[in-house]
Amino acid sequence: MTSQTIHPVLGVGFGPANLSLAVALEERDRAGTAHFIERSTDFQWQREQLLSGADIQNNPFRDLAMPRNPASPYTFVKYLASQGSLTDYLHLNAKFPLRREYAGYLTWVADAFRKQVDYGRSAVGLSLVQGEDGGEVFRVETDDGGEYLGRTVSVGTGRSPRVPPAFQRSLGPRVFHSTRYLSSIERLGDRPLRVVVVGASQSAIEIILDLLARPQVQQVVSVHRTIGFRLKDTSPYSRRVFLPEFVDYFHPLSNAKKRRLRDDLRSVNYAACDQDVIDRLAGAQREFELTGSERLLMKPFSEVAVSRSEGQRQRLVLRDVNHLTEETLDADVVVLATGFRDFGSEQGDEPYHPLLEGIAHRLPLDEDGVPVVARDYSIELKSPADSPQPLRVYLNGLCEASHGMGDAGALAMLSVRATDIADSLQRDLLRDHEELVASGTSP
Fold first, then answer.
1. 6-160+342-439, what's its fold?
2. How far is Cα 359 from Cα 381, in angstroms, rounded to an integer?
3. Which of 19, 94, 106, 350 is the most exposed place for a label (fewest CB within 10 A)?
């Protein structure tokens, strides 16, 4: 193959997960070993859900670095001080910062690593090729025909959106996942809209509140399989799922026990909402009831059985999950606040991240046919007999099924997980350096 840079660490995606890894590697004087590619044209975090009044639901001091290194220049406190807003923030006395403010913090940190990131490059394939030294390396192909080589890959792209079966053929400008909410709803302009929101998550209730604040939205219909929006379990005992000790406890369990424990703890993170947004929505609902308005309709115990386009409208068939009765509902827009797909063998799961398809034949699988992920978040690929060292791909923020709920997009685990991955990479980088020295090829 032609001469090309082989990065010791190649990161796919540059959101909070791989950003936190970049910080951890810099602390170990390993900043130059990692290079990242990101499909967005600049750093962004939850840009489609930066809604008025939405907060992060996370202690802001469990940030990219503070739990590992309180003296780090990349803490949330250092960001506030750099903006001259530390006193204002403390005076506000808010439990959690606004999502918009935390997005500013993450962008501020990302700017310090801009030279290590190629923005506007979307990874479309991952494979193995032979390097100049005869050993295997990873090749990441991009949508513009480019390629990157790396000895190790850290996948930090986030999980795939969960799209219910009824909508898998109808996604488009008027039927979209919550990860595309703001740009999609604003693209529709000021025309009158009847909007259906599917799901009972924190994202669902935030989107409903945002829609009710838009004058062109004539009606919002909330469709969910349960009785309604349930309160999130914020007990400090339940929230131990976001501590590293819980990961140590969870990871060695059998798959069956992991599934049972995740079901037991589901209300910590899924189909559950904070008290403040529940109160806001219940107040708005009561106001509409008192005035005889049907601007907000609730459809509990319901699922969408059929979704089909009819002209400029989407016709939905709702089914009561208990009585199995059906009704028809027309909408201009459908927003799917339905979460993300897990790795596993259950219905709706995917066995591994789609990017790993090109190396699927080398993935070690467990009894459920799911890749085996080590405690350090790595998958050690099955290697040929003559391979000198195993190849590893790290799943950075994708391992809820194997490591617990702290990997379900929780900001609280960013620095802890990045520490584990950076420590593992550090051992590999030192080993590789020692081998180069022994062979006389070290620069």
1. FAD/NAD(P)-binding domain (3.50.50)
2. 9
3. 94
